[in-house]
Amino acid sequence: MSALMLLDGGTGRELARMGAPFRQPEWSALALIEAPHFVSQVHAAYVQAGADVITTNSYALVPFHIGEERFVAQAEALATLAGELAQGVKRQAGRPVAVAGSLPPSCGSYRPDLFRAEEGWRVLAPLVRGLRAQVDHWQAETLSAIEEAQLVRDVLGHDDKPLWLSFTLQDEGCADAQPRLRSGELVADAARAALALGARAMLFNCSQPEVMAAAVDVAVDFFRSQAAAVQVGVYANAFPPQPKDAEANSGLDEIRADLTPALYVNWARSWRARGADIIGGCCGIGPEHIEQLYKARMAGVL
Questions:
Q1: Phi, psi angles (nearest 5°) of residue 236
Q2: Cα–Cα distance measured from residue 202 to residue 188, given in angstroms and rounded to the nearest whole number
Q3: Is 13 exposed, middle or buried (0-12, 13-18, 19+ CB in 10 A)?
Q4: H or E element: which one contains 137?
Q5: CB burial class (10 A; 0-12, 13-18, 19+) of residue 109?
């Protein structure tokens, strides 16, 4: 098993907690637009907590959040700024830290039914142009369907930076023994697609911790069967189960009171035992959770 890599945690909630400008519909993009120093503070908090990877604050740079007019006029420039802020914190870290270029779901989080490839290309292309010079790897996040991952590869073209694909899972009424994406597609099929698309890592994010272990098992088993050097990772959220008509970040969802840093470490130990070698957090998982993961790693229990 390779050394554990620690990702950062959620950005939007942390910005709100720090007192940054924060409202709907702009979500985490508002601080980037009005007070970018708060974005740097969030990155620095995760570095201080022990994260090896910080993620650009580009997830909300889509028309759904910033509006069509601002998207057309400013999306590329805002993506560049998001990358520059992360790079600035990386330079001051005093240790190796990587910058992940966040590429969001292009047609709506949790909504594979809304996906349209042509619209997705229009949304992702300026983000890729703005981030390209600033990131160490691409991290396509909260993908609900395999075709969303295929689009990311198409938009990136021949870019040689490592590609990480992170899928969100069904976490409402999951009686099915086979873990599935929110599209209903099997995780096994998503793993097969990730390998074909040249992904260096396949992750699962923005779903409850309870559904992650089965997905890790499937992905690890598949990549081992193919003798493929594809890493597997998890960054769960702290939301209750999300229904099929949910839209991530369309409102302030409840945060589970039971998902303490100590309990999150217990979940992480389970994922690690199954073969996950990249672990972090998504919505509602903050620097205090990442710090506990770091301490567990240093103590040799993770």
A1: -80, 165
A2: 11
A3: buried
A4: strand 137-143
A5: buried
CA 51 to chain centre: 14
Tokens of 166: 């992170």
Q: In the predicted model, is pLDDT for residue 176 greater than 70?
A: no
Task: Count CB-CB contacts under 10 A for residue 119.
Answer: 15
Query: Strands 98-103 and 163-167: what pairing?
Result: unpaired
All residues at 6 or more sequence positions from 287 whose CB lies less than 8 Å from its CB, including other chains? 9, 14, 45, 46, 48, 49
Is the Cβ–Cβ distance between 241 and 209 less than 8 Å? no
Neighbours of 227 (CB within 10 A): 6
The answer to whether the beta carbons of residues 149 and 140 sit under 8 Å apart is yes
Is the CB of residue 74 less than 8 Å from the CB of residue 30? no
Per-residue model confidence (pLDDT) at position 128: 98
CA dihedral for 78, 83, 87, 90, sign (positive or negative):
positive
Q: Which phi and psi angles does 137 have, rounded to 5°? A: -150, 160
Torsions phi, psi for 11 (to 5 deg): -100, -50
Tens of pLDDT, residues 228-239: 999 999 999 997
